[in-house]
Amino acid sequence: MRNDLIIGLDIGSSFVRAVAGRQNASGKLEIIASGKANTVGHILRGEIVNINKTSAAIAEALKKISGALEGKNTDYYFSSNLSGSHINVQPYTSIKIRKNPREAVSIQEIHALIEEAKKPVLEKNPCLLHTLPIGFKVDNLPTTTDPVGQIGQKIQADFMVVTANPDKYALLVQCLVAAESDHIKKGNVYFSPIAASTAVLSPEEKEEGVVLVDIGSGTTEISVYQNKVLVQASVLNWGGDRITEDIRIGLNVSLENAEALKTTFGSAISKLIDINEVVMIPGIAGRKPTPVSVKNLAIIVEERLKELAAKILAEISKIGDPQSFKSGIVLCGGAAQLPDIAELFQKITDLECRVGVPMVVQNSQASEEIHDPSFATAIGLVQVYYEQLDQAIPTEDYEPTTIGESSGESGKGGKDKPGIKNIFSRVVDVLMGSNEAEGEY
C-alpha cells in the first residue's frame, strides 16, 4: 500500500477531468474525489488554442477535488496527458555488439541500451515522451521481452518511440504551470492511450492482442497491444464533435441542442428506435417547441459511427490481420457511452467489442461518474504513477527518476528488493518517460 495521493488530469477537447486517487490496503487503486471543467472552444482536436481559458479550466477541475486533499503542508503531484495528431508513434531498432559475449545479459545492460537508443531520437526531436521496449533478440535466439541471463555477441532492441511537437508540448506545460496551486504542483506528462490502457485493459487482453479505441470529442486514439506491449498507435482528427455537427445540420437545431440530443437520446443502431418516438426541442425566446424524430437522430449517429469503425478497421489492417487480435476492440472515451456502440463496431469490424469501464475502487466521497468510460484516461494517469514507482531498479548503478524527484524523493520508497526477473517484467510492461527528456517538467 502507498499513502501517496496522486491527481490524474485528463485534458480533453470538451472537459478537463480530474481525479484524486491512492492505493488502498489491498493494493488496488481507490479514487476518492473527481471533478471536471468545460474546455469547449479552448482545445480543438486535442490541441490547446486558448492558454488562459485552458489554464482556468484546469484550475477549476483541481478546485473541485481540493476538499479531498489531506494536509495543508503536503505537496501533491499529478500525471497529465498529451494527445493530438502531432503525436508521432514509430518503431525504432537499436543494435549493439557486446564486449563479452560469454557474459550474461544484465538488467543494467538493458537500461543502458534503452538510454543509448534515446540519443538519436532526441537529435531529431527534443520532445521524446516515451521509449517503450517491445522485444529483444540476442544473436539468433528467439525474440523475447526478457533477455536477462542470455549470452551472445549481439543484442537487438526494438522499441516504440513516442514523440510530440515541442511547441504543442510547451503550450501544455505552460497551462499546467499556470494552474498549479500552493499544494498541487509538478508532474509527468504521458501519451493518453498509455494511461487509458492501464485503466480498462486486462493483462490477458494485452497478451492475446487488443485494439483500444478512445473516442473523444475532438480526436480518436487507436492503440494496439500484442504480447503485452504497445505495437502501434495513431491519432485521428475524428471525434464526437463530428456527430454533434451532423445532428445540428441534419435536424436544423442549435449546436447546444445537438449535443444534448446526442448525449441524452442518441443511439448507435437506428433500427432499434421506434419510428414514432419524438422529442421536443425548446423554442428560442418564447417560440414553440420543435419536434425531433429520435429515429432520424439515431440514423445520423449510426452513419457517422459506421464511418469511424471503417477507419479504425483500416488502421488495424495496416498492422496485420485484424482477426489476429483475439481480444478484439475495447472502446472508451465520452462517445463510448452511446447505447449499442459496441454492437455496431462489432458488426462493421467483425471483431469482438466491448466498452471499457475503469477498473477502480470508488471511495464514498467520489462521484459515480468515475465508472464512466470517459474517465478512463484520468484514472489511468493515477495508476501510471504507481506503476512508475514500482519499476524502480534497486541497484547502486541505476536509480530512475520519479514524478516527485524534483522535490528530493528518490522513488525507492523503502521497498524490499524484488527479484531481477520481476523487476524486468514490470519495466517492459510499464516503462514510461520518467526523466527530463521524457515527459517530466
In short:
With 441 residues, this protein is α/β, with parallel strands linked by helices. The strands form five sheets. A six-stranded mixed beta sheet has the order 10-6-1-2-3-18, with helices on both faces. A five-stranded mixed beta sheet has the order 13-12-11-16-17, sandwiched between helices. Helix 6 (240-251) packs across helix 7 and helix 6 (240-251) packs antiparallel against helix 8.
Helices and strands in order, then pairings?
Layout lengths: L5 E6 L3 E9 L5 E10 L4 E2 L2 E2 L2 H15 L10 E7 L5 E10 L9 H18 L3 E11 L15 E10 L2 H14 L4 E8 H9 L2 H6 L1 E6 L4 E7 L2 E8 L3 H12 L3 H11 L12 E4 L8 E4 H26 L9 E4 L8 H9 L3 E3 L5 E2 L13 H15 L29 H11 L11
Structure report:
Its main location: membrane. Residues 6-200 form the SHS2 domain. The protein is α/β, with parallel strands linked by helices and 441 residues long. The chain folds into two domains: 6-85 and 167-239 and 305-384, ATPase, nucleotide binding domain (Nucleotidyltransferase, domain 5), CATH 3.30.420; 88-163 and 391-430. It contains eleven helices and 18 strands. It has helices at residues 51-65, 107-124, 166-179, 192-200, 203-208, 240-251, 255-265, 294-319, 341-349, 376-390, 420-430; strands at residues 6-11, 15-23, 29-38, 43-44, 47-48, 76-82, 88-97, 128-138, 154-163, 184-191, 210-215, 220-226, 229-236, 278-281, 290-293, 329-332, 353-355, 361-362. The strands form five sheets. Strands 10-6-1-2-3-18 form a six-stranded mixed β-sheet, with helices on both faces. The chain has a five-stranded mixed β-sheet with strand order 13-12-11-16-17, sandwiched between helices. A three-stranded antiparallel β-sheet has the order 7-9-8. A hairpin with a 2-residue loop joins strand 12 and strand 13. Helix 4 crosses helix 10, helix 8 (294-319) packs across helix 9 and helix 10 (376-390) runs antiparallel to helix 11. The two termini are 27 Å apart. Mean pLDDT is 84; it is low at 392-438.
